[in-house]
Amino acid sequence: MRNSKFLTRLGISVVIASLFFASCHKNTTPVAEDTGYATDQATTEKTFNDVESIADQGSMLSAGGNLNYRTTATTSGGCAMVTRAPGTITINFGATDCTCKDGRNRRGEIIVSYTGNYSDSGSVHTITFNNFFQNDNKVTGSKTVTNMGHNSLGQPFYDVAINGALTLSGGGTISAVWQRIRTWTAGYATPTDFTDDVYSVSGSGTMIRANGDTVLVNISTAAPLVMAYGCKWIEAGTITYTLPGGLNRSLDYGNTAICDNQAVLTLPSGVSYNITLP
Fold first, then answer.
1. Is residue 23 in some structural domain?
2. If pLDDT is split at 50, 70 and 90, which confidence band does 61 have?
3. Which domain holds residue 91?
4. Is there a contact between 195 and 229 (Cβ–Cβ < 8 Å)?
5. Collapsed DSSP state (helix, strand, coil) of residue 79
6. Which pLDDT does position 18 carry in this prediction?
7. Which of 77, 89, 192, 274 has its CA 20 to 30 A from that of 212?
């Protein structure tokens, strides 16, 4: 009888311990697993935003001009040679890496085809790539930008459609089909000076990660992403991800624009992680 009571108590203890362990295990998700889609999306988002900024710079240079994509100025003798023909701009970084002043390595060509005057309301320009790499990630596909004129605040804004991909240097491909509204919130009064340019970006779309997972991405107009010309990272805003299985998670860069690589990832359970982005 005594042994029976002991075994009964032992069994209850084992069950309680098992439930406790299972509960802890269930609420503890590896950080690497949680942040993979966030880093994939951040890398892809910033890469395609950089491409558009480079195209805009190229549109300002005369035929045969040099472009140094940098954080302080556009100068001659830079990374890329810009050639122009009616309706076409080719920005050639060469066959080997050039380290641009924003700290990123680039090689290959960005090709811009456009209608009308490049900066006019209603004009459309389409960006494609010829063996173009940014930090050894190959950029393919297209980005189509429609100039929508000015919003109620007098800021130029653009409708952007991205159907592209990054083939990662470490293997695998991230595919993105996104629709964006890109608003030029600062620096538009000085169109030849790119150093003061700031954009806000909102919209939605689908990302297929290198591991094959499909992730829905949404950036609301209430908390758009803020991207400054002089910063390597997204500075502010919130992204909501819908992962396979339907769970939503959010990545918050903050409400105030700060140039750093930090963001807060919040899981459906309410648990948050501070993460460092590439």
1. no
2. low
3. 33-229
4. yes
5. coil
6. 35
7. 274
Q: Please state the domain count of the chain.
A: 1
Q: What angle do CA 271, 273, 275 make, to 5 degrees?
A: 160
Return d(Cα 217, Cα 234) in angstroms, integer. Answer: 15
**Beta-strand pair 124-134/173-186:** unpaired
**In this structure, is residue 158 part of a structural domain?**
yes
- Over residues 12-16, mean pLDDT: 36
What is the number of other CB atoms lying within 10 angstroms of the CB of residue 190? Answer: 11
- Residue 98: the pLDDT is 86
Give domain status of residue 13, yes or no.
no
Higher pLDDT, 47 or 23: 47
> Distance between CA 265 and CA 38 in Å, rounded?
8
What pLDDT digit, counting tens, does each position of 159-200 carry?
999 999 999 999 999 999 999 999 999 988 887 777 788 999
CA atoms of 250 and 225, how far apart (whole Å) = 13
Give the tokens for residue 2. Answer: 């005594």
Which two tokens mark 238?
């919130």
Q: How far apart are CA 262 and CA 272, in angstroms?
A: 13
Contact yes or no for 51/127 (Cβ under 8 A): yes
Q: What is the mean pLDDT of the chain?
A: 82
Beta pairing, strands 198-208 & 225-228: antiparallel
The size of the chain, in residues, is 278
**DSSP structure class, residue 223:** S
Which pLDDT value is given to residue 123? 93
End-to-end distance of the chain based on CA atoms, in angstroms?
Answer: 64
* Share above pLDDT 90 across residues of the chain, in percent, rounded to a whole number: 50
Q: How many CB atoms lie within 10 A of CB 153?
A: 8
